[in-house]
Design brief:
single chain, mainly alpha, 75% helix
């Protein structure tokens, strides 16, 4: 009995230490970003376009990168949902959850989930070269959509698999069609959809490797899908590698803006998840 008590204390202490280490790492990252980015952050930085070139320019702001990130993330999220939701319903409503095809599909999405984003970017870049396409906003949207589709599908699929089969059987026994049953499933997995959307947005808005190959970079705001687009992660990457201290400060300001956007999205995601959880049958 005494040995079990000691083991429990040791495990509790290890969990406490690891939790504190996680908070320490997160706190040190936030401290570095705020310390270096806050002095350079201003209203002009958020609302104006850069001047003098993104690598050596010290004037203007980051409006092009902010708008470009919102363009890429917004469009890819919508496209990702359009593709992912029918796949999740097909795997969990139209197929038996234990079927071989469903298992192979989940394995394939798990593999796609783990592929580094730079591989997606290199693959898309190869396709673009083959067809003679230039870096553009459309290229960035497509590669980010491909990147987040596995996140959408596996996150929502795990929630859908937790639904009791009796719920589906009860719907069928009442004479509901599979399409009508899907409406019931949607209400139950709505928190999972919100969580998957939040995870996907976080992955999409912070990715630099994939859009580096496909979206390109520009000091202006794209007005068509065929024009290159800047993003905040690329602004951080390019400006932080500049030898000019003032430009490096702008990189930290971009990192701070990106962190604030992710924080706002996280808060909104929590609110939406809690709201949808009220409709979930326990």
């Amino acid at each position: 009995m005494k040995i079990k008590f000691v083991e429990e204390k040791i495990m509790k202490g290890m969990m406490l230490v690891t939790t504190l280490l996680v908070f320490l790492f997160v706190g040190s990252i936030l401290f570095t970003i705020i310390k270096n980015g806050w002095p350079a952050l201003s209203w002009e930085m958020i609302t104006s376009l850069p001047g003098g070139g993104f690598y050596i320019g010290k004037e203007g702001g980051l409006l092009n990168a902010i708008v470009g990130s919102l363009y890429v993330v917004g469009a890819s999220t919508v496209l990702g949902l359009i593709v992912s939701i029918p796949v999740v319903f097909y795997l969990n409503v139209y197929l038996r959850r234990s079927s071989r095809f469903a298992s192979l599909a989940r394995l394939a999405f798990d593999v796609l989930f783990g592929i580094p984003s730079i591989v997606y970017g290199a693959f898309a870049f190869t396709i673009m070269i083959y067809f003679g396409l230039k870096t553009s906003l459309a290229g960035g949207i497509i590669v980010i959509t491909l990147l987040i589709i596995p996140i959408f599908i596996r996150s929502m699929d795990e929630i859908a698999r937790e639904l009791p089969q009796d719920m589906l059987h009860a719907s069928y026994s009442l004479g509901a069609t599979r399409y009508e049953t899907i409406k019931v499933v949607v209400r139950q997995i709505a928190p999972g959809i919100a969580t998957a959307t939040l995870l996907s947005i976080g992955r999409a808005i912070g990715d630099a490797a994939a859009v580096m190959f496909t979206a390109g970079y520009t000091d202006s705001i794209p007005v068509s899908l065929s024009q290159p687009a800047a993003t905040l992660p690329l602004a951080v990457f390019f400006q932080l590698s500049s030898p000019i201290p003032e430009v490096q400060e702008r990189a930290y300001a971009a990192a701070l803006i990106l962190t604030i956007i992710v924080l706002i999205l996280s808060i909104l995601g929590r609110i939406i998840t809690n709201r949808f959880s009220k409709n979930k049958i326990q």
